[in-house]
């Protein structure tokens, strides 16, 4: 495969295409490539012109090897996206991540955008600021698996020169749902901007960037990754009055209020 020095891709792979962000990015990414290959283990809408649709469980190494054949770059959204018992996280986010990078190595894919999560850092307090060099403090099995995913990306950069932008996405939904999300919200338009700048920045090695819009309040510092050139254009501010009216009082002793991970810090996946 050619190095990713292009603004347009011959064949781009989007995993997690049946999910919330995958469905949102599907038509947007199509504009930047000749062929968009879509995969998930769940059912997806049938292929339109210029699309390929392949069902693929990430824990199936042989299937992932075939999935990655012929792609120039990957946007990796597939996986467990909330706090869950260990077994599905192990399959999707641990085995799946290694399978994807092994396939990328064998098929000489040069650039991956990995959907990591703010939950890698969930046990930092909301009065602390974190950057790409702050040591991880995952808030559960899910955050732990994303920290592992970032380490996989680092290994494949150091050892095999596969570039990755690990995006610690905050909260990417149509609008911020609560007071915490006023700080973590990432609009869908800014998500598209971030994914595309991460795919096309000339040199990224393995870079870790926080994925949020230009929110007035924030606990993320992206100064170390200015080379990516992400310039968010949206903000949670227009939603502030409605969000604050719906949640006027916060329990300042509640761990979900104290820590950056919010409710994830007390999610109980162990039954
Ligand atoms: P989602 O849960 O809606 O989508 C994830 C997709 O991955 C699903 O369609 C699911 O079927 C697929 N998947 C799960 N296990 C799989 C497996 N073993 N094999 C193949 N496919 C599998 O999640 P969403 O919101 O679309 O997020 C996309 C990515 O971004 C996820 O990796 C998530 O962890 C990450 N992220 C999302 C945030 C958000 O605010 N939406 C915040 C932080 C991270
Ligand atoms: C995540 O990592 C989840 O995938 C998403 O569903 C949200 O809960 C988000 O973090 C968040 O922290 O708001």
Describe the secondary-structure layout:
Elements: E1 9-15, H1 20-30, E2 33-40, E3 51-55, H2 61-68, E4 73-76, H3 86-106, E5 111-117, H4 141-160, E6 163-169, H5 181-184, H6 188-200, E7 206-211, H7 240-246, H8 255-258
Parallel strand pairs: 1-2, 1-4, 2-3, 4-5, 5-6, 6-7
Bound molecules: 1,4-dihydronicotinamide adenine dinucleotide and D-galactaro-1,5-lactone.
Explain what you see.
The structure is a single chain. With 271 residues, the chain is α/β, with parallel strands linked by helices. The protein has one domain: Rossmann fold (3-Layer(aba) Sandwich), CATH 3.40.50. The protein is 32% helix and 16% strand. It contains eight helices and seven strands. α1 crosses α6 and α2 (61-68) packs across α3 (86-106). It is globular, with a radius of gyration of 18 Å. The model has no long low-confidence stretch (mean pLDDT 96). The structure holds 1,4-dihydronicotinamide adenine dinucleotide and D-galactaro-1,5-lactone. 1,4-dihydronicotinamide adenine dinucleotide (NAI) binds at residues 16, 18-22, 40-42, 57-59, 77-81, 91-92, 96, 115, 117, 169, 171-172.
């Amino acid at each position: 495969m050619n190095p990713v020095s292009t603004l347009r891709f011959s064949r781009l792979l989007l995993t997690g295409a049946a999910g919330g962000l995958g469905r949102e990015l599907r038509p947007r990414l199509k504009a930047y490539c000749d062929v968009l290959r879509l995969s998930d283990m769940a059912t997806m809408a049938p292929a339109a012109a210029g699309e390929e649709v392949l069902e693929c469980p990430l824990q199936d190494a042989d299937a992932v090897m075939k999935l990655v054949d012929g792609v120039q770059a990957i946007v990796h959204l597939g996986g467990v996206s909330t706090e869950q018992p260990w077994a599905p996280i192990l399959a999707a986010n641990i085995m799946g991540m290694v399978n994807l990078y092994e396939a990328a190595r064998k098929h000489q894919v040069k650039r991956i955008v990995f959907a990591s999560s703010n939950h890698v850092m969930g046990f930092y307090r909301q009065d602390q600021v974190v950057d790409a060099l702050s040591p991880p403090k995952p808030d559960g099995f899910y955050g732990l698996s994303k920290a592992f995913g970032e380490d996989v990306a680092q290994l494949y950069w150091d050892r095999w020169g596969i570039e990755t932008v690990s995006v610690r996405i905050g909260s990417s939904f149509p609008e911020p749902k609560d007071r915490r999300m006023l700080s973590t919200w990432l609009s869908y338009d800014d998500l598209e901007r971030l994914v595309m700048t991460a795919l096309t920045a000339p040199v990224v090695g393995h870079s870790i960037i926080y994925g949020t819009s230009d929110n007035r309040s924030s606990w993320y510092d992206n100064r170390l990754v200015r080379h990516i050139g992400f310039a968010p254009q949206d903000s949670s501010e227009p939603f502030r009055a409605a969000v604050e009216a719906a949640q006027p009082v916060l329990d300042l002793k509640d761990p979900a209020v104290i820590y950056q991970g919010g409710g994830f810090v007390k999610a109980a996946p162990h039954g």
